[in-house]
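Q: How would the structure tokens look for this protein?
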Amino acid sequence: MANALAGRRQARDVLCRSRLFGHVEGALLDDMINRFQFETWAHGRTVPAEDVKDRFHVIVSGRLQVVQINQETVRMVTLFLLAQGDAYDLLQLLTGEPCEGIFEARDNLDVLSLPTDEARRWISEHPEFNRTFLPYLGHQMRALSQLAGDLALHDTETRLAHLIMRHLEKDEHGTPRLKLINNLSHEVLAEMIGSVRAVVNRQLQHWRKAGIVKLNHGHIQINKLEALIERVKRFQLPAPK
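A: Here is the predicted structure in token form.
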């Protein structure tokens, strides 16, 4: 019982700080949390979208990669890398059809889930939730638009620079730090830009020799932020906050 209460308190804290639920009035948020069930996904677990098509999920802790695969070439591209407070699968919530992809846990995941039909009823009963749901949906659509633009218009170096810039934040000392993707393998980074591990590794080594980045046991440290900004100016991405 104590563990369940602690889990709900943690879930509420995460949702209160999330983009999707952060502005939801407290009573409505408690109502939704009470409808959810708690699930745990082990690191490395891979689940076809079809297998979770009847449930709506919200991440409490950990990261989840949403991947699309060409079954003939086995090439992969990451549609989303989701983290604390993110929800999936929005496509099936809206259309009734699951996304054409695979979900893979990049860490041990703690998630909340409930039947999709119940999530739809909750949204219907509380249309004020749309004040946060629609901007969150727009954020996800923008991410897909940026991915499509990168894949169609830019070379691997530019796509990798864009990926890093999107996940940079400045710490309290003003030093740019990578968020969310920092300890991911080169293979996973390649999947996020529609490339392959060898190409991404070669590009990172090129940047290392140029002094742009420092590589340390899977972590990427940015030494020359201006050099990366030069590579994203044409794409008009904002500098890290």
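Residues 117 and 235 are 39 Å apart (CA to CA).

The chain has a mean pLDDT of 85.

Upvote if useful.
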